[in-house]
Amino acid sequence: MFELSFIWAGIIAFAVLTYVILDGFDLGVGILFPFAKGERDRATMMNSVAPIWDGNETWLVLGGGGLFAVFPLAYAVIMPALYMPIILMLLALIFRGVAFEYRWRTERSKPVWDVAFAGGSLVAAFMQGIALGALVQGIEVADRAYAGGWWDWLSVFSILTGFAVVIGYALLGATWIILKTEGSLQRQMQNYAWWLGAGTLGFIGIVSILTPFQDPEYFHRWFNLPGSIFSVLMPGAVAAAAWTLFSGLNAGKDGQPFLAALSLFVLSFIGIGVSFYPNIVPPNLTIVAAAAPDESLLFALVGTVVLVPLILIYTGYAYWVFRGKIDPEEGYH
Questions:
Q1: Coil, strand, or helix at residue 120?
Q2: In angstroms, rounded to a whole number, what is the distance separating the alpha carbons of residues 154 and 158?
Q3: Do 230 and 271 form a contact (C-beta atoms < 8 A)?
Q4: Lowest mean pLDDT: which of 132-136, 175-179, 217-221?
């Protein structure tokens, strides 16, 4: 019988990836927000994500809630290990969400909410990157509980991945604005996207080189069959995505750079999966060992089979309704 735990691992991975690529670009818009040239551009940038940002964060709830429900041991290990970056991320997302509502209600305090929007986006992205780096490093487990220290999450490698995620999200944000705007703002973001794309590729290269040395098991997976197949294929796939990104930017395409930037994140996510599998919490807590009883997995799966397609339909409909370019004269008021 196929392990229900692996089905659920796929569902959680899908939810996390969907969150990263959807909320990633609207966090990226916030990261780039301070660089807008004037109130008109700032309002246009915010309006480009205002109708969809809260729906994008649905996937964070599904990923985190699903982890708690179906992999309780993994949740019980990860949360104590990453309390600080996760709490800071959630606080940043709260400030950012409030800024969406209050920025349009005041003139005197608008600069305060601008800072909340940009700062919340930056901190949330940075903390997500740090949490990722800490997870890749591995979490110390003893007697089915977290056995590490309070500051184990903070290291040179986790800070590096924090900056990598910030730059990557900014690339997603820039290419999203290219897709949704015209004129001077679009040209500004085309210029930014070129440099952000180069920075993202640089960070992907550095993190990819360092990851196999974080744990001997990673090195084994990447340089022995079947993982070595990915070691050969992944650089070519990343190079193809990079060519698509830069050729789209140079040709003035609207949608091609955004899709290429998304593909870079998908490829990076696949790389993390190759490093982790079959563990859910590296270096040695496996998917099967961390899973809830099969009865619980099956019960939760019945609801999820209904819920996830509904969320996908709602999300697709929302993007369809708000498709096309943003009119600077209209917006989220």
A1: helix
A2: 6
A3: yes
A4: 217-221
Detail the DSSP E strand segments found in the chain.
Answer: 141-142, 145-146, 279-281, 285-286
pTM: 0.91
Per residue in 38-83, pLDDT (tens digit) is: 888 888 888 888 888 777 888 888 888 888 888 888 888 888 889 8
> What is the per-residue pLDDT across 272-327, written as a single tens digit (0 to 9) for each?
888 788 888 888 888 888 888 888 888 888 888 888 898 899 888 888 888 888 77
Q: Distance between CA 165 and CA 169 in Å, rounded?
A: 6
Mind giving me the DSSP string for 154-214? -SHHHHHHHHHHHHHHHHHHHHHHHHH--HHHHHHHHHHHHHHHHHHHHHHHHHHHHGGGT
| Residue pair 44/328 in contact by the 8 Å Cβ criterion | yes
Residue that is written with structure tokens 């969907």 in the block:
18
Q: DSSP assignment, residue 223?
A: S
What distance in Å separates the CA atoms of residue 237 and residue 131, rounded to the nearest whole number? 26
Q: Give the C-alpha separation, 192 to 136, whole Å.
A: 29
Backbone angles phi, psi at 140, to 5 degrees: -75, 125
Between CA 94 and CA 134 the distance in angstroms is 23
The answer regarding whether domain 4-321 maps to CATH 1.10.3720.10 reads no
Cα end-to-end span (Å), the chain: 54
The stretch 259-277 carries a mean pLDDT of 88
pLDDT in tens, 8-45: 888 888 988 988 888 888 899 999 999 988 888 888 88
DSSP state, residue 211: G
Separation CA 308–CA 311 (nearest Å):
5
Q: How confident is the model at residue 329, as a pLDDT?
A: 66
Contact by Cβ (8 Å): 85, 137: no
Q: Please state, in angstroms and rounded to a whole number, the distance separating the CA atoms of residues 179 and 4.
A: 40
User: Look-up: residue for tokens 């939810």?
Assistant: 15
Place of tokens 């690529």: 21
Contact 153, 81 (CB under 8 A): yes
